[in-house]
Amino acid sequence: MSAETSNDRAIMLIARREISTRLRSKAFRVATLISILILVGIALVSKISSGGPSYQDVGVTPAAASTTDRLTAVARALHIDLRVHDVGEAAGRARVRDGELDGLLVGDDPAAIDVVVQTGLDDDLRSVLQLVAQRAALDRQVSALGGDPATVSAAVAGARVRVTPLERPTETDGQQLALGIITSVLIYMSLLINGQAVAQGVVEEKTSRVVEILLATVRPRQLLIGKVLGLGTVGLIQMAAIALCGIVAGTATGALHMHASATAGTVVWLIIWFLLGYTAYSLAFAGVASLVSRQEDVAAVVTPVLMLLIVGYVIGVSILPSTPDSGFVAALSLIPIFAPTLMPVRLALGVVPAWQAVVSLGGIVVAIPLLLWLSARIYQNAVLHSGARVRLRDAWRTG
Questions:
Q1: How far apart are CA 98 and CA 117, in angstroms?
Q2: 56-156 belongs to which homologous superfamily?
Q3: Under 8 Å between Cβ of 47 and 254
Q4: Helices first, then strands: H and E counts in the chain
Q5: Could you give the 3-state DSSP secondary structure of residue 165?
Q6: 3-state DSSP call for residue 116?
């Protein structure tokens, strides 16, 4: 067996051990279930608070039948979903009272529309009816002056406003924004939970002296890589389960109705940035965690690394939604330590030039081997030291 094969085999054995241990953890299963329930709950709340259907149901009595064509034409021009129903006046009033119709047209004068409602008239429907009445009044005046209403209507309909933007506008809709924020939350939570799981695992093995047994058969670098690889696989499984359930819930409730290609693209980038971000942060967490021997001390040593993660996340959910074109955020998203929490959100919002995506991706790909070298050196020199906290300077110089 070659040295390379032996090295890979050792790493895979450690990774499988971490995967098996983590998947059997009750805390892991509970955390995953709670995250899924939260996403499903968000989808349901979004559906409930959406205020019902976005279309308007309007009844038209035989007396008001002459307004039907104008009504549908104006609604179409205003991009308002209007559904017209031909009904008798008595039946129509009953349906308005029962909430089945938003309004009932009962008058026979298209220039003075008479509409029956239950409590109030929707603003969109009011705008449509107002324009229908105004157009009917205009046609009547044009006819009285000897003109052709059809010719005037065609001229009015052909009037246009030409807009010449000096810069390309940012096209970001509410669905993109929601998906971007959810992406940021998923990556942040995954890095936070699984990154700290690496740190806690390092200290637990050090406290129980298991690490001494393991290092009798494998090298510190192999142990570090295997631990990061194993917990990263579990984290990816967890995130995929949460994201899949969230997408299914959002689609089923109608809260998520983006184009399939846009959603798929966001999911692909989510996976890529999770893997890269998790690898980078987990290596950093493992390196600094090896400096201490007690679980109580873990929080203190991982805080500097954790703050970098939190800063990127906070900027991503506070500044990006209101200013997606922010140059400050764009610059930060190119820095490897902030890229995992910022770049996925910018990609979901569709505001990233191709060169920025390439630079950001290349930066973290280059940073990961450097982090592996730094963390492996610190881990190797500090993991066997029990008792008092090892200073970073001493861990770097030892050996």
A1: 11
A2: Periplasmic binding protein-like II (3.40.190.10)
A3: yes
A4: 15, 4
A5: coil
A6: strand
d(CA 266, CA 257): 14
Task: Identify the pLDDT of residue 176.
Answer: 65
More confident residue, 295 or 174: 295
Helix (H) or strand (E) holding 396: helix 392-397
Phi then psi dihedrals of residue 116, to 5 deg = -100, 130
Contact (CB, 8 A) for 395 and 288: no
Both tokens of 140, joined, read: 């009547």
The answer to whether residues 228 and 286 touch, using CB atoms and an 8 Å cutoff, is yes
For residue 160, what is the DSSP state?
A: -
Alpha carbons 55 and 374: distance in angstroms, whole number = 59
The string of DSSP codes covering 307-375 is HHHHHHHHHHHHTTTT-TT-HHHHHHTTSTTTHHHHHHHHHHHT---HHHHHHHHHHHHHHHHHHHHHH
Q: What are residue 58's DSSP bridge partners?
A: 84, 103
Sheet order of strands, 115-116 included: 82-86, 56-60, 103-105, 115-116
Report which DSSP code applies to 84. Answer: E
242 close to 35: Cβ distance less than 8 angstroms:
yes
Q: What is the pLDDT of residues 338-373, one digit of tens each?
A: 998 888 888 877 778 889 999 999 999 999 999 888
pTM assigned to the model:
0.65
What's the angle, vertex CA 206, arms to CA 274 and CA 292, rounded to 5? Answer: 80
Tokens coding 142 = 């044009």
DSSP one-letter code for 88: -
User: Beta strand 115-116 with 103-105: parallel, antiparallel or unpaired?
Assistant: antiparallel
Read off the pLDDT of residues 200-220 as tens digits, 9 standing for 90 and up. Answer: 888 887 777 777 777 778 888
Give the count of alpha carbons within 13 A of 313, CB side only.
18
Percentage of the chain lying above the pLDDT 70 cut:
87
C-beta of residue 89 within 8 angstroms of C-beta of residue 106: yes
- Hey, where are the domains in the chain? 3-48+173-397, 56-156
